[in-house]
Amino acid sequence: MLKRSAALAAMVSLPPPSRREGRAVIFPAPEGIAASEDWRLEVEGREVFCHGDYRLNTGFPPGLFKMKVSPQAYAIFDFEGAVTVRATLKSRLLDNLDGLKVRPLALAIKPRIAGNTVEFTLDRPGDVTLDPDGTGLCVLHLFTNRPETDIPRQDDPGVRYFGPGVHDVEALELKAGQTLYLAGGAVLRPCPARLRLPHKKRHYTGEAYYAATTAIQATGDNITIRGRGIVSGERGLPAGRRFGLFQGSRMKNLRMQGVVFTRATGWTLLMHDCRDSLLERVRVLGYFTNSDGICLHSCRDCTVTNCFIHTADDCYEVKSKGRGIVLEKSQVWCDAGTTMGVCHEIDGLVTDVTWRDMTVLHYTYRYNPYEGITSRGAIFIHPAMGGTVRNVRFENITVERCASMRPLIVVYNVKEPKESVHFFPDRPFSAIEGVVFEKIRASGVANPEILIMDQSGERRIQDIVFKDVIINDRPLTEKDPRLTTVGNVAGITVR
Length: 495
Fold this sequence. Notes:
- Mean pLDDT is 93; it is low at 1-20.
- It is built from one helix and 44 strands.
- It is mostly beta strands.
- The relative contact order is 0.08.
- The strands form four sheets. The chain has a 30-stranded mixed beta sheet that branches. Strands 1, 4, 5, 7, 10 and 11 form a six-stranded mixed beta sheet that branches.
């Protein structure tokens, strides 16, 4: 969108922010961290630091580390009661808010717009995205929480405490019973040592990087990560290293709350063999491919709730095996990969897993050199390593915009084409049984296809139910041309 005259915006002004009963907690701006060039934010008349950030955007030329990215921003604050938020767009790419969407749309926020400034009221904490032209360009993510009431003591021997400011470390290891606390305004920037591998691995951009250990590694029971701070992997690529930000292994009662994880260059949050664990109000941002969001690998009885993910790879995913997992009340924006599903490396039984009350803000995948357009869908099931998927549900899923030409829903049991990096042609076919898609509301979908494909020849996909599915304002019907089955698929039901 072309820039309008700045004089026009200057002629229109909003009155001073309305005074309402409410209290905002504003955190210190971290010195040395780049501020957004596109947004200025005030809450209850007080300025809030906006972090400069990026998202994968293949409509742009190669830029940051040869990745095709466009700018975005995010801000973090706490509040209670009702507060007035005022944001001003000052982007070089856009300078007006004519097409503004305040997402998720279900919040029904009624903004007042004057020129390039928007004002609105928030009366309950959560995640809100200002989408200036509705397409995802130059957005501002707002991550808000209730004020903390149980901040730990800095001298508590069981707490790794990081106060406001920038903290550069190599890596962290957490053991049973420990708490990692990141205060508001804290930015933890790990850069772990590289693995003892002789060669760098070439990325599809042409750049080559060493693999490094995970930045934060945790083993043991009753570990907590919480606060209002940030864990950033931004030091990795300049040092020639790629790494994930967190790996929890063989854990029970992991609690992760309130922290923002950003700029991973491997899987962002990997839970491996975790049980009875909770991730709540965790936010994940990533522009680099392979920056998967929350990955539950061989986990049982875990809950992910009220989280936010915007990455350039799979977002809310279950891998290997798993049982009794709930992912709910969360938002997702996916620029590559898939928004949610059972993804690829499934070599055991995945059962009793539910995604519910989820909102897809955007699904924007276009093309990248290492996987084709039909290798995934916005919602995706593909156990590729001989495992079984049984009793999996997607309930009350809202898709606000799906600009990708990938199918909306894909259920795969495939091995071709063999050159796909995720099809594992040397492993046996898997089984998919008892999957329910209920109350799906998808709007702005470029490709409304639902694709179910079984290449096994043995009827290994069975009992797939679609109930109350509406795509682009049209209900899915039994003989709907948007529903495509390939291979010997049994028991497809549309209600």
